[in-house]
What we know:
The complex is a heterodimer.
Chain A: H1 7-10, H2 41-60, H3 72-85, H4 92-123, H5 125-138, H6 143-154, H7 158-180, H8 186-194, H9 199-233, H10 242-251, H11 255-283
Helix pairs in contact in A: 3-11, 4-5, 4-7, 4-9, 4-10, 6-7, 7-9, 8-9, 9-10, 9-11, 10-11
Chain B: E1 2-12, E2 21-32, E3 36-41, H1 47-55, E4 62-67, E5 70-71, E6 81-82, H2 94-98, H3 100-104, H4 109-122, H5 138-151, E7 156-160, H6 168-185, E8 188-193, H7 196-202, E9 205-210, E10 215-221, H8 224-229, H9 234-238, H10 241-261
Helix pairs in contact in B: 4-5, 7-10
Amino acid sequence: MTEQADPNTQTRKKGIFSFLMKARATRPGETYGVPGQGDTLWLSVLSILGIIFVWWLFTFMGWVKPLFLPAPQAVLNKFLQVWNEGFTNTPFLEHVGISAARVFGAFLLACLVGIPLGIAMGMSPLVRGLFDPPLEFYRPIPPLAYLPLMIIWFGIGESSKVLLIFLSVLAPVTLGARSGVKSAAIEQIHAAYSFGASRWQVMRHVILPSALPEILTAMRIGIGFGWTTLVAAEMVAATKGLGYMVLSASQFLQTSTVIMGIIVIAVIAYGFDMLMRFVERRIVPWKGRM
Amino acid sequence: MGLEIRDASVIYPTADGRPPVEALRQINLEIVDDDFVVALGASGCGKSTLLSLIAGFLSPSSGAILLDGEPVQGPGADRAVVFQKHALMPWLNVLDNVAFGLKLQGVPAARRYETARGFIRLLGLTDFEGARVYNLSGGMQQRVGIARALTCDPKVLLMDEPLGALDALTREKAQELILNIWHSTHKSVFFITHSVEEALFMGTKLIVMSPRPGRIAHRFDLPFSRQFLAGTPARQVKASRAFIDLREEVLEIIFSDEESAI
């Protein structure tokens, strides 16, 4: 029998850097050369399971002390314990609820202020000129840096906490809405004017809908900043909330509670992002298609 | 009555002391009754600037644009524009895109949908009323764009290279469609194109423009669209002796412009 290699494998170069070589022709149904195409769901599942396995392995083999890294099952037990008994005499869901109220409340306020402000900045040189410096001034400052000011000015109640989260969400949402204004093609705007539109109508019926995909993306980024700032907001004078739970547990070296709190925050944030992606697909299905 | 352009010039100022650019010099043009005026010319000859003047996006440096004797102050539905592309609203379906102009004018929903459906039928889009525009082919998107402009019932329909992005076969079909619609609606049309054949086939009047400064270099009266509408097949019109001779003549004019530019 003569040696006849399969033509599909014959030309393939082996090696870990083969993906850097010239790509071969695609299978029917795919587009040649699109960067990063392919389904990732199973890899994501694999990644999560892999991380948990490595985590479990390290603790099971005793390579890391439980004080530094408790075992996955210890974290799960802690979760069940806090779920049943609460943390510092407050039920678990009340911690979740109060943190969610702070983050989502601040997020909602930031959207109510930031989206109209961003659109106004995109539409009007007057508004842009006035609001660009303060926004760009505070945007790169870490919330922790101005937390003391918030407390001095607004006290140790809810307002300083919500305001801190609000500020961290406001900047990305405003900037997103501002650049979203540029999304409408000039032909779309000219078409509307040539059909007799007023400036208000062009804004309402052309610029606003065109900006929607970018505004939704900005909202997703913004809520991420909100969760990031939560722990900082609950650092001072909080007696409830997930951030408070993580911080006070860390002071008592309850590492399992710390990790549990982190995972709970991550799961809520990830769940909300999934919801936003779903909303995106429903209300801006044309995104990137015209 | 109709549209009249009187001695219109457009001069763009330039920075750092270079001489200002004369985009259009002393344009005189009438678009009346059911004229189908086609503007043809090399790139940079001011075709699109002329359309912007008529549409009201741009005001002339000197001269006047008059619609039914009244000076044009800005854009308006009596001069609806069909663009080459990127001008549909992807968040609206076909019906709402076509009814878009009437919505802006405050026409109640029932009446604007009725009017829109009439033009959707005229353009052969009835089965696609509820379709998303980004799922349509380029030719169908352009038909939506034309239907949308027609629902505004403009006095002059402005078309800025409406068929430029279509493939050759779709383009010929679309030419015939536009002529038939023009014939049945009796609109005045101002139509920009790069294609000499398209210009000769579609227009009743042809203006050939030259660059630097943009001006109307030649004018022709054309019989070919009437021949097509009287029943002669399009290919036969385009293959006739008179058509080919004129095509070569116009090509000569345009190429001599292009060469002097290089």
